[in-house]
Amino acid sequence: MSTQPDRVLIFDTTLRDGEQSPGATMNVEEKLAVARQLARLGVDIIEAGFPYASPGDFEAVQRIAQEVGTVDGPTICGLARATKQDIEAAARAIEPAAKGRIHTFIATSDIHMKYKLKKSRDQVLAITDEMVRFAKGFTDDVEFSPEDAGRSEPEFLYQVLEVAIAAGATTINIPDTVGYLTPSEFGGLIKGIKDNVPNVDQTVISVHGHNDLGLAVANFLEAVKNGARQLECTINGIGERAGNAALEELVMAMHVRRQYFNPFFGRPADSEAPLTNINTQEIYKTSRLISSVTGMLVQPNKAIVGANAFAHESGIHQDGVLKNKLTYEIMDAQTIGLNDNLIVLGKHSGRNAFRTRLQELGYELSDQDLNKAFLRFKDLADKKKEISDRDLEAIVNDETQQVAEHYKLELVQVSCGSNARPTATVTIRTPNGEELMDAAIGTGPVDAIYKAINRVVDIPNDLIEYSVQSVTAGIDAIGEVTIRLRHNQRIYSGHAANTDIVVASAHAYMQALNRLYSSTQAGEALHPQRMAVPAGTGV
Description:
By secondary structure, the chain is of the alpha/beta class. Helix content is 38%, strand content 18%.
């Protein structure tokens, strides 16, 4: 990879840092589906996970490397602390990829070195040199990050980066780990690195940042102006605490404002050449997939992908847009893949026509998943007069992004009304194959269902979020239900779609409970940034 790319490389860390959001944990199949969509989106690098964290994380990275890391696909990256066991695990996991990268890191701020690492500056320098060289023994593509660079003493940071580059790092990533910097400070940090690290021209400068002060995207754009050529971001901006810089916002900012950014790349201001490799028409679909899989809803006023991003309430705005969209819209909704097209399929349509339309929408399903989705489509076609592409996407996501059904909901029946006590009856198949039935009374139909399910499943939890959204307009719209549970300070999400929101509510709750059950069976995974480098030499 050129050390001076003529565009911005997009490094997506949705599957690693994004998954560290409370409740955003994904299973292996879900991670594979996300990775395939990220490849269709056109990201340059996928940080597929932290292989040393758990056997599940290792398997996910390895399978993504095998199935998505093709010759013409993205680089597949594995995260590793600056330790031999982490780096070896990352190397084994990414080995099947045509293009593999090891991303290793160690903290360089005084507060992290003193309280987390309990190491001196000299020790950190020595570990950096040894571990980057060790990683280089497995792959030519090595990325190094000085964790908490934003709060590190600049002169020491320059030393660490010089050592990492000399040891073979091809990318140096500058993380604002706690979202502390302002745009001018971040831009100045990148400029300082370019001016003071003598061998910096041998590497790509990358940036990683969090949104604690709501400045992550602005920080990154300022970094680009000062020479950063790789951006580490996530879909919908999900991630630790307040999240990461949002991929869709960064990409569209550089797409819409190309004339402003072109001169920083040595291009004529009026150049129409794209500044990233992203297929922007895949943005909305990718956003919807991440929201569905993680259970993290997109706020309506979210830039680019929010429900209100292209809506106009004011009469003055409406009048202007009707006369000329450019009066109040700086981008076309179709640019991000948002449209209101209706499919021409109906209840008499065949499986081949259904598969063809899904392929046009970017979905490549296995025969088994296609069969499940087709049956749902036929059922929906009997209930709805018009079926939109968003309805199809809801069906596909609901049928294919499933967790292991340890507990399976076989039946749900509800009785309720203005003069009746809401009562629910459920039949559930347990992990040992036993079929159990129970009933409960609640304050409403959903409350009754959840109480009945809890009587059978008997896994203590707190319901902390319940939301319903319609996929499209109309009284016959599909309703999407998202719920989040808390158990032992961890959060688990569930998502389901159905024209009957009561049924969707039941399936969403079962999905969250199955995630919780799977987690208790698999054990806890390590968290990369909360685990210190081992004592002693650090290796």
